[in-house]
Amino acid sequence: MNFLRRNTMIFVMWKRLRSMQDRHFFLRTRQPFFLFGRLYNTSEFNVLNLNSIMASNELIKGTLQTIILKVLHDHGRMYGYEITQKVKDLTNNEIRLSEGSLYPHLHRMEAEGILTTETVHIGKRVRKYYRITVTGISVVDEKIRDFTDFIRIMQNVLQLNPVPNS
Question: Taking all residues of the chain, what is their mean pLDDT, rounded to a whole number?
Answer without folding.
Answer: 75
